[in-house]
């Protein structure tokens, strides 16, 4: 707010010479013209006031819920005078559907998974980023820059795994088989992500196949596992959303590293845990992107610079409970967080894990068909 007041004061000073001139004219003007000049002065002052109201702009951001620190947003708004409007999605599928339609045109920024960011970028829907317009990219580790390409700021990274209630699921799951073929006592309490890529990770890795496979027979085998899993499912979706809508009905779910922190906060408990299955995982990277249609690209670039400052990136990462790709921010992360293997996986997990890459359009279409068929099959049970 101090910045806004300073801008208003500066704006008034910039117009003062003109105001002073009008007052001088009034002093020497014919009495009948005084009213005219006074109206001009009042109009000018009103214009200054109106301009001050227009100083503040709003950035509309499409993002996962609880995926940016409220304190960081407050600091941005207090420092710049600009506001942020966060709108939440609960699946990559729903996000892509909205941003692929006219209803998405109101968003200035969005958080994408690495695959979607490059697909949207190649379709000219994301504003290209480089060191030229986003200097803080120099702080991002090279491997993470590659994940987002030039279509987003590498924001947070992690891996897929099993999030579970340790008071309900005993013993703790250690393999993807425990999610896909859960004990009968957990039936009706298991949740799978609704995602054409992530949802296939468990069955593909259980078979020892690549999460990026283009082999139709391997995808067909994955579909068989999903069909066999159907009777155990509460549904397809995001565990956090299900926990809000049907509290204490979720025992175990396919989730992202960091989800257990949010679930514990929601339930005001410490019952949720996260595990990387023995067969390995899939490494994900989320990219903070500026939509090409945004009329506030410069302001959006300032926002990305702000959240990628080392102090901001470190505090934000710790609040979310996920890993930062910012090299300088890593030096500011507490030792307790860095040593938490659910956030920063051990090398043995990383060595067995796969990094997502872009797959063919035909393969992506087939994956969508598989997930839609699995969901319909589950609903028919």
Describe what this molecule looks like in 3D.
There is one protein chain. The chain is α/β, with parallel strands linked by helices and 381 residues long. It folds into 3 domains: 2-53, no CATH class; 58-157 and 284-340, Periplasmic binding protein-like II (D-Maltodextrin-Binding Protein, domain 2); 158-283 and 357-380, Periplasmic binding protein-like II (D-Maltodextrin-Binding Protein, domain 2, 3-Layer(aba) Sandwich). 47% of the residues lie in helices and 15% in strands. The chain contains 18 helices and 10 strands. The chain has helices at residues 2-14, 16-28, 31-53, 70-80, 92-99, 114-122, 142-148, 176-180, 201-206, 216-229, 239-245, 259-267, 297-307, 310-320, 327-330, 335-338, 347-351, 361-380, and strands at residues 58-64, 83-89, 109-113, 153-165, 190-192, 233-236, 252-256, 272-275, 282-290, 354-355. Strands 1, 2, 3, 4, 5, 6, 7, 8, 9 and 10 form a 10-stranded mixed beta sheet that branches. Helix 4 (70-80) links the parallel strand 1 and strand 2. Helix 1 (2-14) runs antiparallel to helix 3 (31-53). It is globular and about 55 Å long. Residues 1-55 have low confidence and may be disordered.
Can you describe this structure in just a few lines?
By secondary structure, the protein is of the alpha/beta class. The protein is built from 18 helices and ten strands.
